[in-house]
Design brief:
The chain is an alpha/beta fold. It has helices at 26-29, 34-46, 62-71, 111-125, 147-159, 173-182, 203-209, 248-259, 262-268, 272-281, 296-302, 312-328; strands at residues 3-5, 12-14, 16-19, 51-53, 80-85, 87-88, 95-100, 103-107, 130-135, 163-169, 187-191, 212-216, 287-292. α3 (62-71) links the parallel β4 (51-53) and β5.
Length: 329
């Protein structure tokens, strides 16, 4: 597995990382067998995927609990563990983000809130430090909590040895500029797939300032794996409910595109998911691709994605096909 440096942190991680949102289960993803989730995390490490990503809000703490159990079976010092702060459901601090499972979930990047998040995460996962600590979502009202105040607390955490690198997620260019003025940012985590390329506009800034771009949802929460039927309808409340690409008309369009790539899967002896993950990685040498998995079979398939020798011509063909589909939705 290829390794890459995480920004200017000095930390080296696998070019592909394992996302643990689905492992949290709950209304978003449905029930899981926690032992299968633990086995999946351990298998990822065996396959060379040493970056495990979770968040405090995934399953309202359950994802971190499962990750913590897996960590007891793994070589912690060789791992890159990331989690996230700034999304809380404990009090009325910050701004309402969404309602879920009886919780009023709020965006709160106040120093005392992210400090509380960190201490809860460390306790839940049974670790003394987190390698990469992300601010999960930024303030809905720009500047409600000045980024300098948030960054000051993050830098204190780093000085204390409780975190090793600072990241931000779900940002924009203005917010990135604010972070850079306040202190070093080593990585951002943003949604990016061949169908949704908005965060591509952040790549030049990241490359200029030594910031890694970690891309999430590279296969659009499973759609680009090509296993959804044309008439699939997401259940109310689940993660795909209301998502643009999971509308019936868009599922049909995407499935048509994927059917046209049969020759590519045969040429490279790979799955559609492999192709789309590899495509993401080729956008920049500065990219880490974050892939969700909660079954051993899923991570075994995903882990081989970056080994594909996808040609530049086929990369461009896939891009043009996806552009045609994007124009229709």
């Amino acid at each position: 597995m290829e390794k890459k440096m995480i920004g200017k942190s000095g930390l080296e991680a696998s070019a592909l990382s394992l996302g643990c949102w689905a492992i949290g289960g709950g209304e978003w993803w449905g029930n899981n067998d926690d032992q299968i989730s633990i086995d999946t995390i351990c298998r990822a490490v065996q396959l060379g995927v040493n970056w495990i990503d979770t968040a405090r809000v995934y399953g309202f703490g359950h994802s971190e609990e499962v990750v913590g159990k897996a960590l007891k079976l793994l070589p912690r010092r060789k791992m890159i563990l990331s989690t996230k702060c700034g999304i809380q459901w404990y009090d009325d601090g910050g701004e309402l983000h969404f309602m879920k499972e009886g919780h009023a979930v709020r965006r709160d990047l106040a120093p005392k809130a992210i400090r509380r998040d960190l201490e809860l995460s460390l306790k839940t996962m049974g670790t003394e430090y987190v390698d990469v600590y992300y601010t999960h979502w930024q303030c809905k009202t720009y500047g409600l909590v000045p980024i300098e105040e948030t960054m000051e607390e993050l830098l204190k955490m780093k000085q204390e040895g409780k975190i090793r690198a600072i990241g931000a997620s779900n940002t924009d260019l203005q917010i990135l500029e604010d972070y850079i003025r306040a202190g070093q940012l080593d990585v951002i985590q943003e949604k990016l797939s061949i169908l949704d390329r908005k965060s591509e506009e952040l790549l030049p800034f990241c490359e200029e300032h030594g910031i890694m771009l970690q891309t999430y949802s590279p296969i659009e929460q499973g759609l680009l794996a090509g296993k959804a039927s044309d008439n699939y309808v997401p259940k109310p409340g689940e993660v795909r409910d209301g998502k643009t690409w999971w509308r019936p008309e868009n599922i049909r369009r995407v499935n048509g595109m994927l059917a046209g790539w049969k020759d590519l899967t045969e040429k490279y002896q790979c799955t559609l998911a492999n192709l789309c993950i590899k495509w993401n990685s080729m956008l920049s040498s500065n990219i880490n691709v974050l892939c969700g998995a909660r079954k051993v079979s899923q991570i075994e398939d995903i882990a081989s994605s970056l080994d594909i020798a996808l040609s530049k011509e086929d990369f461009e063909r896939m891009k043009q096909d996806a552009d045609a589909v994007r124009k229709q939705q």
